[in-house]
Amino acid sequence: MMTIPDIAGTGATVQIVLPNPARWVQFALTGSGTARIGGSCAANGSTTGFPSAATSTQGVPVVAGNNAGFMAPFMGQFSFYQATEFSAYIPSGATLSVAAKE
Q: Which residue, 88, 66, 85, is CA-closest to 9?
């Protein structure tokens, strides 16, 4: 399994960058508020022109709590999520943890 450093929320959308492509990706939140997981952002992190990127009102919601979170479905034996396929909106007061399997 691979992980990346936890991401402290600042009320902004950030690009999630995995070390390698992954068969599955899991997102968990601690703290307060609702994070959102979406598609890729621009290389500079801007959501402009990237309609699938997460925002405060768009994307799969992720809340803190036991057995809460979001797990992107298993892709299959020969299919992978790309290393830069995800973005996340993380509110202030929340921290997002990401784990994935190569």
A: 88
Contact 62, 27 (CB under 8 A): yes
pLDDT tens-digit readout, 9-47: 999 999 999 999 999 999 999 999 999 999 987 655 555
Q: What is the DSSP string of 26-53?
A: EEEEEESSEEEEEB---TTS--TT-TTB
- Domains of the chain, CATH where assigned: 2-101 (2.60.120)
* Pairing of the two strands 60-63 and 2-3: unpaired
Which of 77, 88, 100 is closest to 11 using CA atoms?
88
